[in-house]
Amino acid sequence: MTRKILWVLVSSLLVASLVLASCGEAAPGEQEEEEEEEAPPAKVYKWRIQSVWPAPAPAYFQSPSLEAFVDYCRRASNGRLDFQIFYPGMIVPAVESFEAVSKGVLEMTHLHAAYWMGKELVGGLVMGLPYTFSNYKEMSVYFYELGFIDIVREALAEHNIYYLGAYPSHHNTLLTTKPIRKVEDFKGLKLRALGLQAAVWDKAGASCVFLPGPDIYPSLEKGVIDGSMWAGPGGLWAMGFHEVTDYLLTPYPQMATSLDVLVNMDKWNELPDDLKAIMEGGAANILSRRQQHNHLY
Predict the structure, then answer these.
(1) Residue 284: pLDDT above 80?
(2) By C-alpha distance, which of 75, 89, 86 is closest to 49?
């Protein structure tokens, strides 16, 4: 009798354990469905960035810096930041780059303050002050340690633009077809010059105009202008300006200038914080790349 009772108890426990085990198992196909469910794909931001400098060429060391920025952002974001580079005129004329970013026609642009200082007065300071900075490193301190970049960002926010970064660069030089040995020699000269430097030379009696880079050589060759402000000797040589000018003004009037990356503010605000941080990292990358090239000028 005792054995019979024990057998019934053991059998009951065995049946109960089997029932509980079966209740814990997923229904046929249910586990497979759960495994098939995946997180939605991350959003990819396909942006266009137009440069005011032509496609890569010996005279334009800006292009490799921009390519480094785009490559860094793509790799660091695992493809979520997908930027395509365009060159002058491919979407809008170079001189319209600022307005195009402001209105959202372009998501980004890589340019020089000469192209937008007429829209915002702070651009004259972004370009650099004549006869002040000794080199581009001092200008970097001015932007990133003394806080000038915050002033620029506040000013450009009024134009629906986020100022991603400044990339202090080489000095600017003046080449002319006529000698300048004293201040009076500026009188009557027509010069391609920019920003506050142009204001100084206008005051000295010159007539300063703005021309995009590709227009400088033919304008010098044809005598439309008597001289041009451009980069250091390396950049001048790469542009071939020594072929159409005879004189180089020293000491250099401006030892540092800055290049910029501007972003449409609405597009910037759409980005999640991690991608904004990557773009800021890309800005540091392009700054480093740009400064590596300064010796070439």
Answers:
(1) no
(2) 86
Q: Quick one: CA torsion of 173, 67, 283, 294, rounded to 10 degrees?
A: -30
Are 215 and 240 within one domain? yes
Backbone angles phi, psi at 111, to 5 degrees: -155, -175
| Cα separations in angstroms, 48 against 61, 117, 164, 213, 263 | 20, 23, 15, 22, 10
CA distance 241 to 201: 20
Q: Cα separation of 208 and 185, whole Å? A: 14
Domain of 290, in residue numbers:
45-169+257-296
My answer on whether omega of the bond before 251 falls inside 30° of 0, hence cis, is yes
**148 vs 195, more confident:** 148
Q: Say how far residue 66 (Cα) sits from the centre of its chain.
A: 7
**Reported pTM:** 0.79
Query: 273 or 260: whose pLDDT is higher?
Result: 273
- Max Cα-Cα span within the chain: 130
Q: What's the rounded Cα separation, in Å, for the pair 116 and 274?
A: 29
